[in-house]
Amino acid sequence: MADKTEIQPREQQESNDRLIVAGTWYGINPTGKYVGRPIVQLSVSGCNLLCGNPSNPFEKDQEELEPGRNAKWVCHSISEWKNGSKMTPEEIFDYWKKHIDCPIDDIGGDIPLVIGGGEPLLPDTQDQLTDLFDHCSAELQWDDPDICIRTNGTFEPSLKMRSYVDHFEVSIKLPSSGMKQDHRIDRPSIKRFVDIIDEKGWSVDFQFVAVDDRDLNEIKKIANTFNIPKSKITVYPPKTDDSETVETLQGLIMEYGFRVIEPEYHQWQSENFDDLSN
Asked: Which domains does the chain have, with CATH numbers?
């Protein structure tokens, strides 16, 4: 596989001693295993993919990003994960105590902790996250914490990461993302996630953004190649204001036998993010 070029904030490239946090919030989860449930989400900065290949990825207004060459949609969180605040585990935990509107003792317990991005399984980011989990475990006396990682599936979770996380949502990217196949598909990582399905104590769901037959045929190929059960696959259209297009795509997805969800249920909840500078 080709080298993965990490598209990260400049400050993260210069220093890896602190986690770069794009945002954190408490609210109702829009999708996945915890849909409809209250969660605390922590979103990290930096990603090894730039889905949509926009020519202006550092545009501050997300709505101004347009799909570039070979892409049919744009990652809905680029304008968030390209920025962030550099924070230690102690600072993140203290921020939650002061600003998150739920009992601190419930985080990772009655209130699942969901980690997204960006890409939380970038090697340095994994180390920083497990440092955070170590701190939370010491403060909250975690026994079996309820933690979910949302990943693009191009990096394997470390043993230490797996010792804390019990659920992975793996969003493998398809041709419509505009990413080259050798950047968006990492066979050993996908195989590792499929293996986790059958291991006691972990659960994995696979999610895909699909826009046409080409995407859906690739999902079928991936599922057959790696023996991913259809019950573990969810497909959703990209965000669009064209309801007719959404309905057409939903019908096409169901024709392929995949579970489909509404696109608005899988959007970046930027309006819920707190200002981490306070």
From this structure: 10-272 (3.20.20.70)
